[in-house]
Design goal:
The structure is a single chain. The chain is α/β, with parallel strands linked by helices. It has two domains: 157 residues, Lyase, Ornithine Decarboxylase, Chain A, domain 1 (Beta Barrel), CATH 2.40.37.10; 259 residues, TIM Barrel. The model has no long low-confidence stretch (mean pLDDT 95). The structure holds ligand LLP. Ligand LLP binds next to helix 10.
Length: 444
């Protein structure tokens, strides 16, 4: 049984009625299918972890992270890729085993690194010239050691939206592979008494449908791997190939299997290592979107339906770019349906827009829908990745609640923000009077 079904003219998601979900938890509502998340994890275990020895999967939590999601990742035995103090904090608060955390970021603060060392994260992926010295200082202070990787810029231009292509020469991520840049950095880590140099990391981009970018980057990483052995007699224990595996947002997209991306990586690595007398390093991958993207939907309530004679019909929903900024930011395409009219045949072309004060606040452009009326429940598919995690309070829209469903059961995992939450951290000037006066005195 798939996770989508129609019963009584209503869309069911992982055994739960979407109209019931909307009535029970309100809209907009993020809904995640645990069954589908676990299925995607089972796929990558079968096609990668169990198929090849010395491999590791770190779920890229930037795609979707909550305490409950940490629990799923933990119980499924994966590692967790975090990229900020906030993500790290979430994992720690969820009780996620910190040795299974991999800490990324091109501009980690001192406080973030301190939290990472104090709580004993397993791997830190270094992406700043002065980062190693801070890590060493903290390791000394806390009496800890840590494994580090260096993120390289593989100079590969992945075929995706330019905002999510991260491996090109001009990228803010990674270190140049120029010999004069990368070798001294790696040597410094090899010689360090506080860190173990675990390896190198690259991430070529996101929402990819071809494996060419990963393979080009891998070849460059392997050359560096051999170079380090030749120069320093040191064999790097691991290579992290990032994530980026594309998913189906619309019926035109065809998701490739994990094996499609990862098998050639394993073959090339094994071939290269055999040819050069190297021990095959552990290969690590960091999928985010491909684990949660298709596992999530968003439910909205239809409000105003506005027909502009001869131009288009807008079906407005009670959310928009505040809960899903991807269409406005990347021109991302989505599909949806009226969930309480699941058996009806779509006949009208409409544009689904949000309620934000911005013309670009369109979730779905010119798509066939059944006739929509105020009060209908509209479901948008494949919103599990980078929807909640990029949600914002534009127009003081509260961030929606999230529910995890599994075989007919539903659990609230994120409470809806209240209006009070929107002003919780705001202060009126008189609350801060003394400080304001001090600042005025200082500048005058
Ligand atoms: N590893 C690293 C180092 C990354 O930078 C990323 C994504 C991933 C793994 C996971 O990539 P995934 O498997 O999810 O494609 N906000 C954008 C996506 C930005 C991705 C940034 N890095 C979007 O909504 O499409």
């Amino acid at each position: 049984m798939g996770i989508f079904e129609t019963r009584d003219n209503t869309l069911y998601f992982d055994g739960v009625s979407t109209t019931w979900l909307a009535a029970e938890f309100g809209t907009p509502l993020y809904v995640f299918s645990k069954t589908e998340i676990v299925k995607r994890i089972a796929e990558i275990k079968k096609e990668f972890l169990y198929k090849h020895k010395n491999t590791r999967v770190a779920y890229a939590s930037k795609a979707f992270l909550t305490l409950a999601m940490c629990r799923v990742v933990e119980e499924q035995g994966l590692s967790l890729d975090v990229v900020s103090g906030g993500e790290l904090y979430t994992a720690i608060r969820a009780g996620f085993p910190t040795e299974r955390i991999e800490f990324h970021g091109n501009n980690k603060s001192y406080a973030e690194l301190e939290m990472a060392i104090e709580y004993g994260v397993g791997h830190i992926i270094i992406d700043a010239f002065d980062e190693l010295s801070v890590i060493e200082e903290l390791c000394e202070r806390y009496g800890k050691t840590v494994k580090v990787l260096y993120r390289i810029t593989p100079e590969v231009d992945a075929d995706t939206h330019r905002h999510i292509s991260t491996g090109g020469k001009g990228s803010k991520f990674g270190f140049s592979m120029e010999e004069s840049v990368i070798y001294p950095l790696l040597k410094e880590a090899i010689d360090s008494e506080y860190v173990t140099l675990a390896g190198i990391h690259f991430h070529v981009g996101s929402q990819l449908f071809e494996n060419a970018g990963h393979l080009q980057a891998l070849k460059k990483a392997l050359a560096l791997f051999k170079g380090v052995r030749d120069r320093y007699g040191y064999e790097l224990p691991e290579i992290n190939v990032g994530g980026g595996f594309g998913i189906a947002y619309t019926s035109e997209d065809e998701r490739k299997s994990f094996g499609y991306f990862l098998d050639p990586i394993m073959e090339e690595t094994e071939r290269f290592c055999r040819a050069n007398g190297l021990t095959r390093p552990t290969i690590v991958t960091e999928p985010g979107r491909s684990i949660v993207g298709e596992s999530g939907i968003t439910l909205y309530t239809v409000g105003s339906v506005k027909e502009i004679e001869g131009v288009r019909t807008y079906v407005s929903v009670d959310g928009g770019m505040s809960d899903n900024i991807r269409p406005a930011l990347y021109g991302a395409k989505y599909e949806g349906m009226i969930a309480n009219k699941a058996n009806a045949i779509p006949t009208t072309t409409v544009t689904v827009c949000g309620k934000c004060c911005e013309s670009g606040d369109k979730l779905i452009k010119d798509a066939l829908f059944v006739e929509a009326q105020r009060g209908d429940i509209l479901a948008v598919f494949s919103t599990g990745a980078y929807g909640y995690s990029m949600a914002n309070n534009y127009n003081k829209q509260p961030i929606p609640a999230a529910v995890m469903v599994e075989e007919g059961k539903a659990r609230l995992i994120v409470k809806r923000q209240s209006y009070y939450d929107l002003i919780r951290n705001e202060l009126l000037p008189e609350h801060d009077g003394a400080r304001t006066l001090a600042v005025v005195a200082a500048v005058s």
